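Researcher: Please predict.
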Amino acid sequence: MAIPDARDRRRRSPTHDELRTWRSFIETSERVKRVVADRLQQDSGLSTGDYAVLLALSEAPQRRLRSSFLATEVGWERSRLSHHLGRMERRGLVRREPVPSDSRGAEIVLTEEGARLFRAGSAPHLRAVRAVFAEALSAGQLAALEDAMGSLDAHLRREDIG
């Protein structure tokens, strides 16, 4: 049996089984993300967006990143990041500092308060990830899911889809 070329794959609609699996993936992953996000907010007062920004900054050299690089790290549009950083700045979690070598550039810096809240929120967040996600799956299921996500990621990169 011939393997369909890329044009044939794009024209063919998903099968019933593919659609069922797709819907299960979307609905379940959204529910898992929502439950973990709710727990993060309840336990630490941080949104998932706050946590993503604080995580990226906590892992960055000198706890600072150019805003354009930070946008790439968290996977957001620059305008979304800018608005979110404004809210985080007002709460004292981050600050913007000019880049001496570039009059138009700015670096986002993790403040001591931001680092403190990130540390305080990390342990309960990781416990929620374990309770909501990891404990629901066997070691074999976790390995299969990791393999499937790796294949999906490779497909997206190879096809330049996303």
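Model: The helical segments are 6-11, 16-44, 48-59, 67-74, 78-90, 112-132, 139-158.
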